[in-house]
Design brief:
Helix 2 packs across helix 4. The protein has about 160 residues and is of the alpha+beta class. The protein has two domains: about 35 residues, no CATH class; about 90 residues, Arc Repressor Mutant, subunit A (Orthogonal Bundle). Helices cover about 30% and strands about 20% of the residues. Strands 4-6-5 form a three-stranded antiparallel β-sheet. The model has no long low-confidence stretch (mean pLDDT about 85). Strand 5 and strand 6 form a beta hairpin.
C-alpha cells in the first residue's frame, strides 16, 4: 500500500464531517413547562410537567478534563493503553470501573498480565484511578476523567455534611 503524501493535501473544510451523521437516539424527558410559553393547539399556555422528545448522542463517550491533557505526555504507552481500556469500561455517571484482567489483556493487546498491571500502577501513581477494596474495581478520579455530567458527579459525591449539634 502506497503512503499518501500528507504534506500536499490541504482542506478548506473539515473532511471528517463530509459524510458523517451524528448517531442520535430519541428519548423522552419530563420537563416543567409552566411559565415557559409552551402553547397547545388552541393557543392556551401549558402548565405542569410533560414528556417531550429529545435527541441524545447514541455513542458512549468519556471526558478528559482539559488540565489533565499535559499529564498524558508523562504516561508510558502501556499506561495510555490501560487508560483507553478504562475509558472503554467506564459507565455513565459512575465513578467505579470494573477492570477484569483477561479482557484488559485482549483490549490492550498485551501478552502478559504484568504489562496491564504496570500500566494500571502508573495510572494509580498519576491519580487517574484508585484501588477499591473489591478486586478488579477501581475508582475514577472525576478531576481527571469521567463519564457523564460533572453536575451529576458533584451531586452524587458532595452530599451536604450534617453538623454536630
Amino acid at each position: 500500500m502506497a503512503v499518501p503524501d500528507i504534506k500536499s493535501h490541504r482542506h478548506s473544510t473539515n473532511p471528517f464531517l463530509e459524510n458523517w451523521e451524528p448517531p442520535f437516539v430519541e428519548k423522552m424527558k419530563r420537563i416543567d413547562v409552566t411559565g415557559k410559553g409552551y402553547l397547545d393547539n388552541k393557543g392556551v399556555e401549558l402548565t405542569g410537567k410533560m414528556l417531550v422528545p429529545i435527541k441524545k448522542d447514541a455513542d458512549r463517550f468519556v471526558k478528559l478534563v482539559h488540565s489533565t491533557l499535559s499529564e498524558l505526555t508523562n504516561l508510558s504507552t502501556t499506561a495510555v493503553a490501560v487508560l483507553a481500556y478504562i475509558m472503554h469500561q467506564a459507565l455513565p455517571n459512575n465513578s467505579i470501573v470494573y477492570l477484569p484482567t483477561e479482557e484488559a489483556l485482549e483490549f490492550c493487546r498485551f501478552r502478559q498480565p504484568k504489562s496491564f498491571y504496570d500500566g494500571l500502577n502508573e495510572l494509580i501513581l498519576y491519580q487517574f484511578v484508585a484501588r477499591s477494596e473489591k478486586r478488579y474495581f477501581y475508582f475514577l478520579n472525576p478531576q481527571k476523567l469521567f463519564n457523564g455530567r460533572r453536575k451529576n458527579m458533584k451531586a452524587l459525591y458532595h452530599k451536604p455534611r450534617k453538623h454536630a449539634a
